[in-house]
Amino acid sequence: MLAEKPAALTDARRLSQRVHFERDGTVSIASGKVELGQGIATALLQIAAEELDVEISRIRLLPASTATSPDEGVTSGSLSIQDGGKALREACAKVRRLLLEKAARRFDVPLQELRVEDGTIRGRDIKVSYWEFAEDEGEIPGDAPVKPQAAYTVVGASVPRVDLPRKFAGEASYVHDMVIPGMLHARVVRPSKAFKHLLTVPDVPGVKVVRDGSFLGVLGEREEEAIAAAAKLRAKCTWEEGPPVPDDMPTWLKAHVTERIISKANADAAAKARGVKRLQASYTKPAIAHASIGPSCAIARWKGDKLEVWSHTQGIFGLRQDLAKILSMREEDIVVTHVEGAGCYGHNGADDVALDAALLARGANGRPVRLQWMREDEFAWEPYGAAMAFELEGAVDESGRIVSWRHEFWSNGHTHRPGRAKLPTLTAAAHLAKPFEIAPAVNPALPAGGADRNCIPIYDFADLLVVNNYVREMPLRSSSLRSLGAFGNVFAIESFMDECAAAVGADPVEFRLKHLTDARGRAVIEKAAEAFRAFRKTENRGRGIAFAKYKNLGAYCAVVAEVEATHELRVTRLVAAVDVGLPVNPDGVANQIEGGCIQAASWTLKEAYRPGVVGWEDYPILKFSEVPRVEVLLLKSSEKSVGAGECTMGPVAAAVANALYDALGVRVRDLPLTPDRIAAAI
Amino acid sequence: MTELEVNGARQRVAAHPDTPLLYVLRNELGLVGTRFGCGNGQCGACFVLIDGRAMASCDTPLSFVIGKRITTIEGLEGEHAVQKALVKHQAAQCGYCMSGIVMSAVSLLSKNSKPAESEVREALDRNLCRCGSHNRVVRAILDAR
Question: Which pLDDT belongs to residue A134?
Fold first, then answer.
């Protein structure tokens, strides 16, 4: 299991690497965290503007690059504000302090008599700008207090996203849009299912083929030529098929356990014995595709023995490590630069396509190569959110209190990102003439966890056992998908809470509150419960509530779902009450919560990945006319800021399943909640 | 060479007449605002206006658009009311699908200046968004009417 990354600032080699004053009166900020569509770029600029006392319009965020950026690990897990934001805040506070100390010395005045307005230091008869003496850096002050929250004017305001106007205008914004002079276009040639070996490649005249063992691709001067050539080859190549993916993944997982891990054991036989009503239930969630709208893309260029890669990876340093391993290079001979891609929601094909591009660029005589996966490549070769199975048991005492709770689950690992293991993880590495053994997907350690994320309920249960069955063998390659195991664990826990409440005739809201002492948790439930209580039931309509504290250490989120069940299940309204601590950008947080609610509703109602999917008709997602109304209730808080992007996923699934039960009196325990499953349950 | 009318200007392009319009726009004319999403008209990321109608450019061959008016997102006059409203409502996350959504919305409003919410949603059903920005987009378009 993986250890957590060390604190971000320790990796910053120098302060000037993070904060640099440009000659044109602007400030450049370097961060290891990257924009994924979550608005982090704007939030980081707000933090820098606040601590430096410089107008936000003067500050630019530099592209993250292994050549210049601090190594802050991966942009994932809703940690960018918490970790990257903290590192940047401290660096900016140090820079401000450093410059103030220098000004105080130069003008021989006490530091306290100086203030900063938009980068200009002012005092009585003193006016000097940061830029006038920023070049000479001096000693970094050990003691540089960050601003108290009460003094914030930029952090906490809904500043408009800096990147959106150019995206609405259709300007070049993504790695997909980069053009480098002399650039060739490439496509990979892979079947739509896993394979063992590439057996035969037909001779197609006029096509520039690059092959390394079972890795195959084409280069073309024109993009449409590369696409047509790859299609022709794909139709005629033959592959030895890989092992079939089991139809019944839950049963398969239960039969292939590598390690049985006790996540939490708190045996209390006396409490358990007080149980008068015993319940048990099994739940499942399928593999789910990230299904980014823009298929993954990368550009690679060889300069002699050195390699440059432009990629929408979430971790430039991790990608570089795996590239170095696979290409037998030194890391310092590779530069990976981040350029935005389509929203990823976790680990999609971004890293794999970067290796593909580097391999194909080997056939390009030093010319840059742009490779974009086709839609079918992305569906077939991205890593998926892992399928999971859950078994829950509970016992309730005479007073209607849960006295015993057992939660056991089965899953592959939820992280297959490059750069974390001795072995590489990138797809093409297994297909080379000298193939690499591929690392298995693993789980980050608790309390954040992977498959085990949110497996330990934060309710007060006296007798408690939580068991994580880790399955190493992967019939379908899995990696991080928005909220990792929390989606399934919270779906199971919060469905089962409702089942227990129903068994003793308790109100779902009161039942949760009865088992929860955490004040912030109770507050979001109470807030969401206003919508729950206001709901007026009519035929075929229902309401449901669910709650979680993300990772048991992040954002608190309670969701109320309203549904209408006729020939299909429709989610008509979602109300999310959320506490993310002090929101750096409240509208940005609301945007993330709304998006999370809608994506989770899509997973819950429609999504299950099976091999053979090539397009959207095989993998429908929620459409404009199907999305529910979403209301976000952001609780006021001055607590530490935590990420908002993932906290809604599990609560939405359970709230919808609970609402379905309220509407029709049927409990569906297998996701997605399709008409077939609902009909079977009735 | 094939002659096209793109954003009000005559353009001569070298691509084969079977080439999907998308690649000609992006690679020959440098109009990269039109995005590749699926290659068979299922997601809307590549929508352009062809004689005023929002259509997928990823599976429309060049030969089909000869003599027709092609408008890409770069060809909208100034900042269109739809684009202004999208900024006002902060109606995107990653933004990759937005060019196509803008073109669908512009096409809708040109035919129906006061669409009801249900009409806006129906018109946008051909555009997929994975980030869940749907409701903000709908509010923005209703605001742009």
Answer: 76
Q: Is A11 helix (H, G, I), strand (E, B) or coil?
A: helix
Instruction: State which residue of chain A sits closest to B96, comparing Cα positions.
Output: A342
How long, in residues, is chain B?
145
- pLDDT, average across residues A211-239: 97
Task: Specify the amino acid at residue A320.
Answer: R
Over residues B54-95, the pLDDT tens digits come to: 999 999 999 999 999 999 999 998 899 999 999 999 999 999
Please write the tens of the pLDDT for every residue from A112-147. 999 999 999 999 999 999 998 776 555 666 678 899
Tokens of A2: 């993986």
Q: Buried (b) or exposed (e) across A323-352, using 16+ Cβ within 10 A?
A: bbbbbebeeeebbbbbbbbbbbbbbbbbbb
Distance (Å) from the C-alpha of residue A177 to the closest C-alpha of chain B? 6
* Domain ranges, ordered by start, for chain B: 2-75, 81-144
| Complex-level ipTM | 0.98
**Hey, how many other C-beta atoms are within 10 angstroms of the C-beta on A280?**
12
Helix (H, G, I), strand (E, B) or coil at A479: coil
Both tokens of A246, joined, read 């089991």
Rounded to an integer, what distance in angstroms lies between the CA atom of residue B39 and that of residue B37?
6
Q: Is B117 on the interface with A (CB under 8 A)?
A: no
Q: Can you tell me the distance from the alpha carbon of A519 to that of A526, in angstroms, rounded to the nearest whole number?
A: 10
CB-based burial, A202-218: b 16+ in 10 Å, e otherwise: eeeeebbbbebebbbbb
Q: Do A229 and A270 fall within a single domain?
A: no
Residues in chain A: 682
* Cβ-contact A528, A577 below 8 angstroms: yes
Tell me: the pLDDT tens digits for A87-106?
A: 899 999 999 998 999 899 99
| Choices 3.10.20.30, 2.60.40.10, 3.50.50.60, 3.40.50.620: CATH for B2-75 | 3.10.20.30
Do the Cβ atoms of A292 and B130 come within 8 Å?
A: yes
User: How many whole angstroms separate alpha carbon A441 and alpha carbon A104?
Assistant: 54
Q: Which residues contact A534 (CB under 8 A, 6 or more apart)?
A: none
The class that CATH gives domain B81-144 is: mainly alpha
A621–B128 C-beta distance less than 8 A: yes
Is A188 in the same domain as A333? yes
Has residue A162 been placed in a domain? Answer: no
Neighbours of A305 (CB within 10 A): 9
The Cα B62–Cα B43 span in angstroms is: 20
| The CA-based dihedral angle spanning residues B18, B23, B27, B28, taken in that order and rounded to the nearest 10 degrees | 40
Owning domain of residue A271: 250-288+385-414+450-681
Residues of B in contact with A227 (CB under 8 A): 23, 39
B33–A171: do the CB atoms touch at under 8 Å?
Answer: yes
Query: Which residues 23-82 of B are in CB contact (within 8 Å) with A?
Result: 23, 26-27, 30-40, 42-43, 45, 72-74, 79
Strand A184-188 and strand A369-372: pairing?
parallel
**What DSSP designation does A36 have?**
S
For residue B129, list chain A residues with Cβ-Cβ distance below 8 A: 293, 624
